[in-house]
Design goal:
binds S-adenosyl-L-homocysteine, Archaeosine Trna-guanine Transglycosylase, Chain: A, domain 4, 3 domains, Transcription Regulator spoIIAA, globular
């Protein structure tokens, strides 16, 4: 097995259990290896730090799989996958749909597995884990006994790893339009045509949190996708709910989800750009009692942070202006480059510009099925601020 030696003084993060070894930290890799192979990682003095898989084409050249001197084989993967299942059993009560494997946080870098009722959707986003795809699928079949396993490997990050994009069944089969239960409601999840794996499971608890706050209110759900927050608000007794998403397709599924839950007459969905739609509503003097902002990650990288901050500020400011006194703002950011402090500052800034006061009702985050390692706080990406606006 090849051995990757880190530069002098560059071992601290890896020694502490951080799963990413950057190219700039590596002195050299001794021995023969193919991209995707597992290598030993040692510090400058040769002290063993763990094992990880290597991809010289990636800035994150090694992703650590273990800090122990153990074999990385089928039985290793089975132990990891069993532990991931067990963690969800302990933390999620009796939910049937959740993220079953969340990459680094489950000590399986690059692997995502979402469970929608008895269907599994898998993404292998790095070369080193992609190679094990078949083995992982057969272990999952054994552990979970799903109807089937569908691969959504069309994520652009695969390009960076030199991996082709592909989708389709790895095992079994099922109707790719699944109806899942969520907080006592029902949602269509289209694992073939939906975004990412089809449904945003990281917001399940946050959608639940707005139910009790929505009663009697006029609600606007911006970036509504398939209507997750909108339908929860309607089920919570909202007077009227409007959802906006730029995707015509998502808006169609949102309408279907509203009907499925008996709130089709309370909800209205529009396909449009949320920035324009917010501006138009401001101009026409519309007012709301609750506004949800759940945009895609505006900051995809550290370099685009400045533009992202401007974007977050704009939608928050416009939303605040549209709220009646006592209105609720549910403001989310799923960009890991925008830290919690910076996000809070952006919302503060928007409040300042609006001349309104806001108080924090609740600070929320990604669900329990999306944990993150204490040593790798970049795994903490989802912020969800619930504010009351004076
Ligand atoms: N709130 C949703 C998830 C939102 S994901 C839920 O709970 O399921 C972000 C959504 O923003 C995507 O559906 C995407 O289509 C949409 N989107 C991206 N840019 C947009 C824009 N400029 N205006 C409106 N929607 C946009």
């Amino acid at each position: 097995m090849a051995v990757a030696q880190l530069k002098r003084g560059e071992h601290h993060r890896t020694a502490s259990g951080h799963p990413w070894v950057y190219r700039t930290e590596i002195l050299g890799i001794n021995g023969r290896y193919e991209p995707g192979d597992v290598v030993d990682v040692v510090d400058f003095r040769g002290r063993f730090l763990g094992k990880g898989y290597v991809n010289p084409a990636s800035q994150i050249t090694i992703r650590m799989l273990t800090r122990r001197d153990e074999r990385v084989d089928e039985s290793f993967l089975r132990r990891r996958l069993e532990a991931a299942c067990e963690y969800r059993r302990r933390t999620l009560d009796s939910r049937k749909s959740y993220r079953l494997v969340f990459g680094e946080a489950d000590f399986l870098p690059g692997l995502i597995v979402d469970k929608f009722e008895d269907c599994l959707v898998v993404q292998t986003l790095a070369l080193g884990i992609d190679r094990w795809k078949g083995v992982i699928a057969s272990i999952l079949e054994e552990l979970v006994r799903p109807a089937g396993i569908y691969e959504r490997n069309d994520a652009p990050v695969r390009d960076l790893e030199g991996l082709e994009r592909r989708t389709g069944f790895l095992a079994g089969s099922f109707d790719t339009r699944i109806v899942i239960g969520e907080n006592g409601l029902r949602f269509v999840v289209d694992v073939e045509n939906g975004q990412k794996t089809g449904h945003f499971l990281d917001q399940v608890e946050n959608r639940r949190a707005i139910v009790g706050l929505a009663s009697g209110r006029r609600v606007l759900d911006c970036f509504c996708y398939t209507g997750g927050f909108a339908v929860h608000a309607a089920a919570g007794g909202a007077r009227e709910v409007e959802g906006i998403d730029v995707s015509e397709w998502a808006v169609g599924v949102a309408r279907e989800n509203a009907r499925l839950n008996g709130v089709g007459d309370i909800c209205r969905f529009v396909a449009g750009n949320a920035f324009d739609e917010l501006r138009a509503r401001e101009r026409s003097g519309e007012r709301y009692d609750m506004i949800v902002l759940d945009p895609p990650a505006f900051a995809k990288s550290r370099a685009s942070l400045e533009d992202a901050v401007r974007g977050y500020k704009e939608i928050n400011l416009r939303a605040i202006r549209l709220l009646n006194p006592g209105g609720i703002l549910v403001s989310c950011s799923c960009s890991r480059h925008l830290t919690e402090d910076l996000f809070f500052a952006v919302v503060q800034d928007a409040l300042l510009d609006s001349g309104r006061a806001g108080r924090v009702v609740e600070k929320r985050t990604q669900g329990r099925d999306h944990p993150y390692l204490v040593v790798a706080p970049e795994g903490y990406y989802l912020k969800c601020l619930i504010l009351e606006i004076d």
